[in-house]
Amino acid sequence: MLPTRMAAKSLILDDFIPYRLSVTSNVVSDVIASAYEALFGLSIPEWRVIAVVAENDGVTQQEICAKTRMDKVTVSRATIALVDRGLIVRTPNRADRRSRLLTLTKAGQKLYADVAPKAIEFEGRIFNHFPVEELDRFISMLRAIEARALAVGDGG
Q1: Which CATH architecture has domain 17-121?
Q2: How many other CB atoms sit within 10 Å of the CB of residue 118?
Q3: Under 8 Å between Cβ of 44 and 29
Q4: What is the largest CA-CA distance in the chain?
Q5: What are the pLDDT digits (tens) for 62-73?
Q6: pLDDT, tens digit, for every residue of 114-124?
Q7: How far, in Å, CA of 124 to CA of 127, rounded?
Q8: 48-86 burial, b if ≥16 CB within 10 A, otherwise e?
Q9: Residues of the chain under the 70 pLDDT cut
């Protein structure tokens, strides 16, 4: 049986949870994106690629797609821009000759070292207003929603 909230007979977009998640995510991303663009000349996809490469040195574009849920074209464009800026290098992947491993250059490492504290600062400016316990529950709920959505997508 569905919880009372889910038993509504008509769709009201502003109360539709997937819509609320999307809008909220877009608002947070837009606020941060404008700062990254102004301070570092980075788009959100470029920042995500840099962050994933910094955390997983020697990662493929396919792995970035899987970790970030960004599509192949977005990751490819971001990677090309970052390679052109000298922030990332591609090296042969001995395990799969069809793909390349991405690593940060020294300039990319420096940029990451400059951007990461700003990212944490923005996160704090948005979320420090909320009690830690609520944020912990929120993160847990987001992870549970993600897992459930993936299960539903797989037919579960």
Answers
A1: Orthogonal Bundle (1.10)
A2: 15
A3: yes
A4: 56
A5: 999 999 999 999
A6: 999 998 999 99
A7: 5
A8: bbbbbbbeeeebbbebbbeebebeeebbbbbbebbbeee
A9: 1-8, 156
Q: Which residue has the tokens 């049986």?
A: 1
Q: How far apart are CA 86 and CA 50, in angstroms?
A: 12
Q: How many helices (H) does the chain have, and how many strands (E)? A: 6, 2
Res 35: pLDDT: 86
Taking the mean position of all CA atoms in its chain, how far away is CA 5? 29
Sequence-distant (6+) residues with CB within 8 A of 145 are 21
Q: State how far the alpha carbon of 30 is from the alpha carbons of 35, 36, 45, 54, 87, in Å.
A: 9, 10, 12, 22, 23
pTM reported for the whole predicted model: 0.83
How many residues does this entry show for the chain?
Answer: 156
Q: For residue 135, give both structure tokens.
A: 């944020």
Question: What is the predicted pLDDT for the residue at 153?
Answer: 87
Sketch the domain layout of the chain as residue ranges.
Answer: 17-121
